[in-house]
Write a structure and sequence with these properties.
Length: about 110
Protein backbone atom coordinates (compact mmCIF):
# COMPACT_ATOMS: atom_id res chain seq x y z
CA UNK A 1 0.00 0.00 0.00
CA UNK A 2 2.80 2.41 0.89
CA UNK A 3 4.42 2.07 -2.56
CA UNK A 4 1.36 3.23 -4.50
CA UNK A 5 1.93 6.95 -4.05
CA UNK A 6 5.58 7.01 -5.09
CA UNK A 7 5.33 5.73 -8.67
CA UNK A 8 2.48 8.16 -9.34
CA UNK A 9 4.54 11.10 -8.08
CA UNK A 10 7.52 10.01 -10.21
CA UNK A 11 5.27 9.72 -13.20
CA UNK A 12 3.92 13.23 -12.67
CA UNK A 13 7.46 14.62 -12.42
CA UNK A 14 8.53 12.88 -15.64
CA UNK A 15 5.49 14.23 -17.45
CA UNK A 16 6.24 17.78 -16.35
CA UNK A 17 9.87 17.51 -17.45
CA UNK A 18 8.87 16.19 -20.87
CA UNK A 19 6.37 19.00 -21.36
CA UNK A 20 8.88 21.70 -20.46
CA UNK A 21 11.54 20.29 -22.79
CA UNK A 22 9.03 19.94 -25.62
CA UNK A 23 7.88 23.50 -25.15
CA UNK A 24 11.39 24.93 -25.28
CA UNK A 25 12.31 23.35 -28.60
CA UNK A 26 8.92 24.13 -30.11
CA UNK A 27 9.07 27.84 -29.26
CA UNK A 28 12.37 28.08 -31.15
CA UNK A 29 10.99 26.38 -34.25
CA UNK A 30 10.14 27.88 -37.63
CA UNK A 31 6.72 26.27 -37.24
CA UNK A 32 6.02 28.38 -34.17
CA UNK A 33 7.33 31.57 -35.75
CA UNK A 34 5.05 31.07 -38.77
CA UNK A 35 2.08 30.36 -36.51
CA UNK A 36 2.86 33.39 -34.39
CA UNK A 37 3.09 35.64 -37.45
CA UNK A 38 -0.27 34.43 -38.71
CA UNK A 39 -1.97 34.91 -35.35
CA UNK A 40 -0.62 38.46 -35.05
CA UNK A 41 -1.59 39.24 -38.63
CA UNK A 42 -5.18 38.16 -37.94
CA UNK A 43 -5.29 40.24 -34.77
CA UNK A 44 -4.57 43.42 -36.76
CA UNK A 45 -2.86 45.04 -33.79
CA UNK A 46 -5.59 44.50 -31.21
CA UNK A 47 -5.34 42.58 -27.94
CA UNK A 48 -7.99 39.81 -27.97
CA UNK A 49 -8.57 40.20 -24.24
CA UNK A 50 -8.69 43.92 -23.40
CA UNK A 51 -8.90 45.42 -26.89
CA UNK A 52 -5.81 47.60 -26.48
CA UNK A 53 -4.40 48.68 -29.84
CA UNK A 54 -1.29 50.52 -28.74
CA UNK A 55 0.61 47.68 -27.10
CA UNK A 56 3.12 45.12 -28.28
CA UNK A 57 1.29 41.83 -28.77
CA UNK A 58 2.34 38.24 -28.33
CA UNK A 59 0.73 35.22 -29.98
CA UNK A 60 -0.83 32.99 -27.35
CA UNK A 61 -2.40 29.54 -27.58
CA UNK A 62 -6.02 29.79 -26.42
CA UNK A 63 -5.88 26.16 -25.34
CA UNK A 64 -2.32 25.49 -24.30
CA UNK A 65 -0.44 22.78 -26.15
CA UNK A 66 0.10 20.77 -22.97
CA UNK A 67 -3.65 20.90 -22.38
CA UNK A 68 -4.29 19.36 -25.79
CA UNK A 69 -4.63 22.53 -27.87
CA UNK A 70 -3.43 22.52 -31.47
CA UNK A 71 -0.11 24.26 -31.77
CA UNK A 72 -0.16 24.70 -35.55
CA UNK A 73 -3.74 25.92 -35.98
CA UNK A 74 -3.96 29.74 -36.05
CA UNK A 75 -7.57 29.27 -34.91
CA UNK A 76 -6.16 28.19 -31.55
CA UNK A 77 -4.20 31.43 -31.35
CA UNK A 78 -4.97 34.86 -30.04
CA UNK A 79 -2.92 38.03 -29.79
CA UNK A 80 -2.55 39.30 -26.26
CA UNK A 81 -0.82 42.39 -24.92
CA UNK A 82 1.86 41.79 -22.36
CA UNK A 83 -0.29 42.46 -19.23
CA UNK A 84 -3.10 40.21 -20.51
CA UNK A 85 -0.66 37.47 -21.50
CA UNK A 86 0.98 37.70 -18.08
CA UNK A 87 -2.39 37.37 -16.34
CA UNK A 88 -3.41 34.37 -18.44
CA UNK A 89 -0.06 32.65 -17.95
CA UNK A 90 -0.21 33.20 -14.18
CA UNK A 91 -3.77 31.88 -14.02
CA UNK A 92 -2.84 28.79 -16.06
CA UNK A 93 0.18 28.18 -13.86
CA UNK A 94 -1.89 28.49 -10.69
CA UNK A 95 -4.51 26.12 -12.07
CA UNK A 96 -1.87 23.60 -13.15
CA UNK A 97 -0.08 23.84 -9.82
CA UNK A 98 -3.36 23.18 -8.01
CA UNK A 99 -4.00 20.14 -10.20
CA UNK A 100 -0.54 18.70 -9.55
CA UNK A 101 -1.08 19.15 -5.83
CA UNK A 102 -4.44 17.37 -6.00
CA UNK A 103 -2.94 14.53 -8.05
CA UNK A 104 -0.07 14.23 -5.62
CA UNK A 105 -2.44 13.96 -2.66
CA UNK A 106 -4.87 11.46 -4.10
CA UNK A 107 -2.79 8.29 -3.50
CA UNK A 108 -2.10 9.27 0.13
CA UNK A 109 -5.78 9.94 0.73
CA UNK A 110 -6.51 6.35 -0.28
CA UNK A 111 -3.97 4.81 2.11
ZN1 LIG B 1 -4.69 43.13 -23.31
Amino acid sequence: MRTIGQPLRDQARRTLTTVVEGRDSYYDSAEHRAWSREVLRRAAGMCASCGAQDRRLVADHRVEIRDGGSRADPGNGQALCSPCHGRKTAAERARRHAMVKIRGKRPEAGV
